[in-house]
Structure formats: structure tokens, C-alpha cells
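Quick review question:
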């Protein structure tokens, strides 16, 4: 049994590795939307459930004829999973074009374009064709092994099934953790899938070896016709009621998991590391719970009583954990308690940072996850009373649990959270969890199959009902916004929350700070805003490339934000068609909160609105469609965002540009370690060798590339285009880009500089999305990739900015302007905007030796004054700097 559990442990690890990677791979194929992720998970879970049921029925028949063959059958199942896993890993990266070909748009009631129902049906068909064969085998491994280990000893079903299920879940927990913390960061998605294939092959070899040994020994536990006991006459009623109980508990458990993900992400962010830890803690809890459930059944019997009490513990601990949770405060307090370790480096710091996140997760998720693990072993113990139907009943319960879990996930994500919010959703889900005890009571407390179950079941029912009813009543008595208010970070000084809404994919918050404009936050994290700094770089995404082209006509903006970039593009008179693509309908619906700066661009008659993943939208368009593709994705370390910074994405985007078209991309230095930033830049310059790095605002930079032979700023043409577009000229003046000096002064690095700085770094790719596994950067001067900056090479972008070594007409202050910015990029003040605690002995001021000409350039530029003035950025007055 121990060796078999070890093999099943490997099987569980491989299964979770596949699931984690496939959700990511299908995100690149179908788009990183909640609908696509839900589709993949639904097909995966459905395959497991039906595979378990079908294999369980088959295993009973096989057991009656050849009981010794089931272990070998398990080995062949694992071998088949390994072979199919290898084929799936080769197929998935090549499905993008197929997904685009089968997708189409339809207009909704608002006139926005959404994917048609036929598109989703076609996606479902693809997912079914690719995943169902392998997931059927995965589901079948459990019930085949259950049939093998239980045999005639049906009284020990709870303990044996608990041990098997626990071993498999423990492997799943380890596989989940290592996938995101070791395997993908070390080798990428393809290599990680090969590890899963290897685990399947090891499990297959081990099972076949054990089977060959057992086949040489006489069978002492097999079934024969005279040993197979008939099932009790009314057992079908008990099976049906127990199945109903596990459907309800599965529904509630998976629904609560969705709420946990939403709740923790609000404070910790949608980081792969956090998502992986949440799932790992849940799986580890289920593992321990399944082992404990089997042990308690073996020790005390009375599985129905134990199942009811476990449901009560689940409800009470879930409500207690959520009502008292303050993940952000806990994390802040624990971080403050270990300053010495956090200031160090190496494995001790990594281990401590991991523990600082795991500890509050255990407090909120640990006990409920453990209680969830009791369900499947105890449900089996309730109904396994006949040798001939062990596999069938185990498969039926597995299917019921899977169906319940799938329904709970879909209901929580698409119905409960959007309509009721987190707190209301929890109320519904814990009520469902409490109701799971009713069919158990009907089965074992009222006219039970065996009278010995009656009193314990009735007592457990009464106790659980009273305790859960009390806990739910106290939960309902909490303030209506208790959970949300304790999840969102408290408003800053003078900050007002104007609006908070919970949707399918996120919690959207609109805030206002007098003098700094409004901000859009999703799940508690800043996404966009209307401050002067935000306006400058977001509008530059559109203005700088469009002014570099002759009569651009078609523009697509990926990620709406608050509409800054889209409104800037709409001001250019030659643009005849605007498109905006956003994965979140909810963000688009908040556009009017920012109408003071986006001027209701969402209603522009030239605009087409697409609710879709930006990458998938580009794939659906023919080559050579756009003059400009511009995007500012969410924070670059968030899950799924790497797909908009990979070399594969840039190759797709370039193919959709017209000859001479441009792409502009956001590059925020504070959000990633230097190595991850250089890998993103490497991906860009490999696809766009004609590229330039431009300064947006402070540490927000712009990567700009062209599909043409040269990327060049021409001051004469620029002046003429601005003269013919007064709305553009006025808008650029408002953001500090009103003169030729300020426009050319955005230059930070040439294509040659970028290529040289990133020469030794691998590019970010779909297969190796390393930014999603980088640590959140606390930006320091020694982490800034200063090799990206070289303002001295400005003539590579603007060769006519200087004539015979002297600035051209209208650009007289350019050299001094660039000197100020070039020096600033190397100063501690540059990074201390985001990391306000300078290392010991380092001044937080920006000191620059300047003369009268430089001082005059600074005086003429509101942006430079704001950048280095004490009022603007906390730096010293430049006039006080030594000469």
C-alpha cells in the first residue's frame, strides 16, 4: 500500500503540473480571459469526473473476472497519460491560428463587439478534443486503484480511500508549488510538461513492476462468484442521498475557493506566486483532511456523523477566517518584525518572504481546506458496503463531487460575485455547505439502513445545524461592506473613494485626490489615472508615433484604462478608425467616471469597442491592418501579462502593422528586477530592430518600434504636422510636450544601445514567461538597468536635430534638456520616488552642476521643474547645486 501511495503521489503531482501549464497555454491560444480559463478548467474537471465514473464501473467487472489485473491497468493508464501529455505539449502552442480562425464577433446591446456564442462552442470543441482523452485516463486512475486496494475489505474503504486520495492530493500540492516556484522559472512551460510526462512514466513503470510481482503470487483477496455479496436492498437510496451531499459540499467548497482567490488577490495582487500558494495551501489542507478522515473512520466508525461534523467545521472556520482576516495588515506587521532578514539576500530571505505570505493564508484557508478533505473518503465510507460495486460507487461519488465543484466555480465566478459581491456570495455558499448535512441526516438519521447509525447521525445533525446556523447568523449581522472594506487598502491622505463595484473579473474602485486627479484601481491595485504624470506618458503613447507617420488612419489601443491614450489618438485628424480592446467589460463601463480627461471618447463615432483579450483580437485581424498598435497592460508581474511582452506577441503585432506602422509599449522600471526588464527589452528589439526608448514620466518609459526600414524623428515634418493639428498641439502642450525640445528630449536610448544592453539576456517568450516569476521589485539605484540609457546617441533617432554639431533651429536647448534627464536617470532621486528609504550614507537629493543655460531650459519646462524641484519630487532646488 505504501509503494502504491507513492506512485499515486507522483500521479497527483503530474496532474497538477499539467493543469497549471494548460491553463496558461490555453490563455495564449484563446486569450487570457476568465471565460477561457473557466472553459479549460471545466473540460479538465469534467474529464476527471466522467473518467472516474466510467473506469469505476469497468473496474468492477474487471475485478470480478481478473482481480489481479487492476494494478497493471493503472500502470497502462499512467503510460497513456504520459504519451498523451507529450502530444498535448506539442500541439497547444500551435493552436493559436486555429482559435483565431474559428472566432468571430457579434454586437451586444451597447454596440460593443463580443465573441459570438459560436466562438465559444468552437473553443469548447477544441478543448474537448485536446483534453478529454487524457483527463478521462487521469480520472480513471483513482477509481481503478480504489477498486484494487479495497477488494473484499469494504469496512476499511474510508481508511484506504483516504490514504489513496490523500497521497494523490499531496502530490498535487507539491506539483502545484514546484511548477510556479521551480519548474517554469528554471526551464519554461515545455520543459515543465516534460517533467510531468516523466512522472507519469515512472508511475507506470512502478505499477507494472508491482503488478508483475503480484501476478506471480497466489491471489488471496480476489473476488469469486460465491464471495461477492449482494448490495443491501435499499442501498441505492443511501447512495443517492450521499451523492447529493457531496454535490452540495463540492459546490460550496469550490465556490469558496473562488472567493478566497478574489479576497487574497485584492491585497496581495494577481501574482503567480500568490495564486500558486493559495492553491497549494488548499490542496495541502485537503490532503491532511483526507488522511484524517480515513483515520477517524477507522478509529470510530460512524462516517455520516463525521461527515456532518466536518461540514460544520468547514462553515464555521470559513466564516471566522474571512470575518477576521486582514491579510495586508498581517503581512505588514510580520514584515516589520523581521527587518534584518528582509534586508539580507539568499535562501533565508526567500524562505522568510514565503513564510510571511503562507502564514496569513494558513490562518484564513487552513482549517476550511482541511475540512474539505474529509468529504470524499467519508462519503465512500458511508456507502461502500458491497464488494461488487466498490468501483462504481467510488466513481459515482467522484463524478458527483466534480460536478458539484464545477457548478460551484461557475456560479461563484459568473453569478454570485458579480451580483452579490464577496460577502453575499459567501453567505450563499456557506448555506449550501450547511445544507449538505440534510441528505446525510435523511439517509442515516431517519429510517437508516442500520439502526446503529441513527443516534450518532441525529446528534451530529442537531449539533452541526445549531452551530452553523449561529455562525451564519453572526456573519449576516456584520456590516454589509465588512469583507470589502477589510480587503481594500485604506484610502490615503485626502483620498476619496467615489465608486466601488465588484464584477466578474475584479473589484473596480474609482478614487479622487484633490489636485492629483482620479485613479482607477482593480482589486486594490492602481491601474491608471488622470494625474499630470499619468497624462504625459499615456498620451505620448499615441502622439509620438502618430506624429512620426504620414496620414495614419487606423489605430488600436489595447487596454482602455481611463481613456488617456485613446483620447489622444482621437485628436489626430487623419485617423478615421479607432479600436479599443479590453479584457474587462467592467473597466470599459467605468469610462464616464473619467470623462473630464477622456472627453467621452468611448462615444466617438469612429470608435469600435471590443471586449476581448488584446492578443487574441490581433490574431483575429488580417496582416497589415493597423498604422499604430499601442498598449499599457496591467502591472507586468501579474499573472497572464507576460503574454503581452513576449517575443511571440511582438511578432504577431508586427505582422498586423502596415508597412511603416508603429507599436508603442509601456516599460515601467519600478515593477520588475533589472534582469526581467532587460529580458522584456530583448524580446522587443529582436522583433523591432528599428526601436527607441523614450521617457514618459519619471520611471515610466515607452518602447517604440516600427515596421519600416527606419525609425526617425524629423523636426521639420513634426512642426508642420503640429501646425495642421491644433488639437494635438494643445494637448501636447498640456502634458509638457509642447515644444520640439521637449518632444526630442523624451529620447533615452537608441536601438543600438538597447541591443547592446540586452545582448547577453534571453528574450521573454510564451514558453518562458519569466517576468511572472520575478520578485516584486523594491526599486533601488543598483537595480536600475542604466545600460538602457544613453542620451548622447539622440542623433540615431533624430539625425537632423543637430546641424554641423549645433542644435537645429527650434532645438537650441535640446543638449541641456537631455543633459538634465540623462543625469537624472543615474541619480538616487530617480528611484527614490518609488523607494523612499535611501541606503545609509546616500543623499535623497538630485544634485546637478548647472549653468545659466541649463537653468533657463529647466525654467522653460514645467516637466523638468516638477521633476527635480522640492515640491515636485522631493529633490533639492537645482539652483542650490554646486557649479
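Suggested answer, residue by residue:
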Amino acid at each position: 500500500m505504501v509503494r502504491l501511495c507513492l506512485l499515486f503521489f507522483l500521479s497527483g503531482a503530474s496532474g497538477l503540473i499539467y493543469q497549471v501549464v494548460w491553463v496558461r497555454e490555453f490563455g495564449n491560444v484563446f486569450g487570457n480571459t476568465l471565460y477561457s480559463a473557466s472553459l479549460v478548467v471545466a473540460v479538465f474537471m469534467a474529464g476527471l469526473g466522467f473518467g472516474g465514473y466510467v473506469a469505476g464501473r469497468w473496474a468492477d467487472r474487471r475485478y470480478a473476472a481478473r482481480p489481479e489485473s487492476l494494478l497493471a491497468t493503472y500502470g497502462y493508464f499512467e503510460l497513456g497519460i504520459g504519451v498523451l501529455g507529450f502530444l498535448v505539449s506539442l500541439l497547444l502552442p500551435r493552436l493559436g491560428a486555429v482559435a483565431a480562425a474559428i472566432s468571430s464577433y457579434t454586437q451586444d446591446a451597447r454596440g460593443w463587439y463580443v465573441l459570438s456564442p459560436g466562438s465559444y462552442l468552437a473553443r469548447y470543441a477544441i478543448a474537448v478534443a485536446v483534453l478529454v482523452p487524457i483527463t478521462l485516463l487521469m480520472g480513471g486512475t483513482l477509481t481503478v486503484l480504489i477498486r484494487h486496494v479495497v477488494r473484499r475489505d469494504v469496512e476499511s474503504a474510508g481508511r484506504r480511500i483516504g490514504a489513496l486520495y490523500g497521497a494523490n492530493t499531496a502530490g498535487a500540492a507539491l506539483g502545484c508549488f514546484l511548477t510556479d516556484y521551480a519548474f517554469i522559472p528554471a526551464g519554461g512551460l515545455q520543459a515543465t510538461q516534460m517533467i510531468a510526462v516523466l512522472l507519469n512514466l515512472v508511475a507506470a513503470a512502478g505499477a507494472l513492476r508491482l503488478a508483475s510481482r503480484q501476478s506471480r503470487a497466489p491471489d488471496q483477496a480476489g473476488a469469486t462468484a460465491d464471495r461477492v455479496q449482494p448490495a443491501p436492498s435499499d442501498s441505492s437510496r443511501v447512495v443517492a442521498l450521499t451523492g447529493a451531499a457531496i454535490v452540495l459540499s463540492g459546490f460550496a467548497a469550490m465556490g469558496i475557493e473562488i472567493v478566497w482567490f478574489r479576497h487574497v488577490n485584492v491585497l496581495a495582487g494577481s501574482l503567480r506566486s500568490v495564486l500558486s500558494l493559495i492553491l497549494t495551501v488548499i490542496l495541502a489542507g485537503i490532503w491532511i483532511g483526507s488522511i484524517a478522515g480515513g483515520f477517524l473512520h477507522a478509529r470510530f466508525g460512524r462516517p455520516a456523523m463525521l461527515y456532518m461534523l466536518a461540514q460544520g467545521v468547514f462553515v464555521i472556520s470559513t466564516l471566522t477566517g474571512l470575518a477576521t482576516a486582514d491579510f495586508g495588515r498581517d503581512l505588514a506587521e510580520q514584515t516589520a518584525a523581521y527587518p534584518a532578514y528582509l534586508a539580507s539576500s539568499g535562501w533565508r530571505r526567500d524562505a522568510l518572504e514565503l513564510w510571511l505570505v503562507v502564514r496569513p493564508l494558513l490562518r484564513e484557508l487552513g482549517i476550511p481546506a482541511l475540512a474539505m478533505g474529509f468529504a470524499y473518503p467519508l462519503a465512500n465510507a458511508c456507502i461502500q458496503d458491497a464488494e461488487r460495486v466498490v468501483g462504481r460507487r467510488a466513481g459515482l461519488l467522484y463524478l458527483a463531487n466534480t460536478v458539484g465543484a464545477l457548478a460551484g466555480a461557475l456560479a461563484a465566478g459568473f453569478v454570485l460575485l458579480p451580483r452579490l459581491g464577496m460577502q453575499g456570495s459567501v453567505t450563499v455558499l456557506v448555506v449550501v455547505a450547511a445544507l449538505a448535512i440534510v441528505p446525510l441526516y435523511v439517509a442515516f438519521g431517519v429510517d437508516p439502513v442500520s439502526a446503529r447509525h441513527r443516534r450518532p447521525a441525529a446528534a451530529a445533525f442537531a449539533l452541526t445545524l445549531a452551530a452553523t446556523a449561529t455562525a451564519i447568523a453572526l456573519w449576516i449581522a456584520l456590516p454589509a461592506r465588512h469583507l470589502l472594506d477589510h480587503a481594500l487598502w485604506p484610502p490615503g491622505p485626502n483620498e476619496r473613494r467615489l465608486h466601488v463595484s465588484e464584477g466578474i473579473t475584479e473589484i473596480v474602485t474609482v478614487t479622487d485626490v484633490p489636485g492629483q486627479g482620479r485613479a482607477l484601481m482593480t482589486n486594490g491595485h492602481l491601474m491608471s489615472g488622470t494625474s499630470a504624470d499619468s497624462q504625459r506618458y499615456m498620451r505620448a503613447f499615441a502622439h509620438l508615433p502618430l506624429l512620426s507617420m504620414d496620414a495614419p488612419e487606423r489605430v488600436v489601443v489595447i487596454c482602455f484604462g481611463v481613456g488617456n491614450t485613446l483620447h489622444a489618438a482621437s485628436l489626430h485628424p487623419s485617423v478615421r478608425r479607432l479600436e479599443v480592446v479590453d479584457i474587462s467589460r467592467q473597466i470599459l463601463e467605468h469610462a464616464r467616471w473619467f470623462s473630464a480627461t477622456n472627453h467621452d471618447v468611448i462615444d466617438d463615432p469612429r470608435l469600435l469597442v471590443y471586449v476581448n483579450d488584446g492578443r487574441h483580437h490581433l490574431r483575429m485581424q488580417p496582416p497589415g491592418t493597423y498604422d499604430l498598435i499601442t498598449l499599457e497592460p496591467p502591472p507586468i508581474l501579474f499573472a497572464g501579462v507576460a503574454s503581452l511582452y513576449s517575443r511571440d506577441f511582438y511578432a504577431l503585432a508586427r505582422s498586423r502593422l502596415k508597412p511603416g506602422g508603429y507599436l508603442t509599449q509601456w516599460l515601467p522600471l519600478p515593477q520588475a528586477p533589472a534582469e526581467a526588464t532587460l529580458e522584456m527589452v530583448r524580446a522587443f528589439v529582436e522583433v523591432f530592430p528599428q526601436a527607441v526608448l523614450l521617457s514618459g514620466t519619471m520611471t515610466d518609459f515607452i518602447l517604440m518600434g516600427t515596421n519600416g526600414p527606419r525609425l526617425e524623428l524629423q523636426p521639420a515634418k513634426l512642426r508642420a504636422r503640429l501646425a495642421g493639428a491644433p488639437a494635438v498641439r494643445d494637448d501636447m502642450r498640456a502634458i509638457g510636450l509642447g515644444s520640439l525640445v521637449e518632444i526630442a528630449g523624451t529620447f533615452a536610448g537608441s536601438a543600438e544601445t538597447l541591443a547592446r544592453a540586452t545582448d547577453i539576456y534571453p528574450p521573454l517568450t510564451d514558453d518562458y514567461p519569466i517576468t511572472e516569476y520575478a520578485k516584486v521589485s523594491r526599486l533601488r539605484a543598483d537595480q536600475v538597468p542604466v545600460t538602457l540609457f544613453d542620451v548622447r546617441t539622440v542623433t540615431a533617432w533624430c539625425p537632423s536635430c543637430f546641424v554641423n554639431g549645433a542644435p537645429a533651429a527650434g532645438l537650441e536647448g535640446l543638449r541641456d534638456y537631455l543633459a538634465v534627464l540623462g543625469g537624472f536617470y543615474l541619480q538616487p532621486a530617480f528611484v527614490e520616488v518609488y523607494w523612499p528609504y535611501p541606503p545609509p550614507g546616500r543623499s535623497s537629493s538630485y544634485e546637478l552642476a548647472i549653468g545659466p543655460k541649463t537653468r533657463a531650459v529647466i525654467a522653460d519646462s514645467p516637466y523638468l521643474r516638477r521633476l527635480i524641484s522640492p515640491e515636485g519630487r522631493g529633490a533639492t532646488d537645482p539652483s542650490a547645486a554646486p557649479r
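Why it works: The longest strand covers residues 657-668. Residues 220-233, 833-847, 870-883 have pLDDT under 50 and may be disordered.
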